Amino acid sequence: MTDAIPSNSAESIFSVDMLLKYMGNDDKALAVVSKIVRDAVAPRMAPIELAATALREQRLADAGKILHTLRGSIGTLGAKRLVTASLSLEKAIAEQHTELIPTLLTALESEYQLVLRNADDWLQRNMPQGV
């Protein structure tokens, strides 16, 4: 039903295989998971852009909240690499290691773009019948 996306890392970029399995791994589960994926990636780069703006404006708490929300919603898609990158940035923000933030934000942005591409590819391969 699904295609695994190979990763050069021990952590995955995107994988909803376990979510599908827990939901029954049938056509109904595929339809529900497809909706979850579509909804999760619908904002596209907006969360990263909002966080970057908050960081530029020195609204560190706001940036941390945006990133925490992003991590929660995208983390359900098996995006372990994104979760790791987000946690690193959130920690730097919380500890006010402002010298680390630009590099960590760039890394998170790259991971998020990979998630979006992989999610789009998955949706194309697994479009439920009748959608």
UniProtKB/TrEMBL annotation:
<dbReference type="GO" id="GO:0000160">
    <property type="term" value="P:phosphorelay signal transduction system"/>
</dbReference>
<feature type="modified residue" description="Phosphohistidine">
    <location>
        <position position="68"/>
    </location>
</feature>
<dbReference type="GO" id="GO:0004672">
    <property type="term" value="F:protein kinase activity"/>
</dbReference>
<dbReference type="Pfam" id="PF01627">
    <property type="entry name" value="Hpt"/>
</dbReference>
<dbReference type="InterPro" id="IPR036641">
    <property type="entry name" value="HPT_dom_sf"/>
</dbReference>
<keyword id="KW-0597">Phosphoprotein</keyword>
<dbReference type="InterPro" id="IPR008207">
    <property type="entry name" value="Sig_transdc_His_kin_Hpt_dom"/>
</dbReference>
<feature type="domain" description="HPt">
    <location>
        <begin position="26"/>
        <end position="122"/>
    </location>
</feature>
<keyword id="KW-0902">Two-component regulatory system</keyword>
<protein>
    <submittedName>
        <fullName>Hpt domain-containing protein</fullName>
    </submittedName>
</protein>
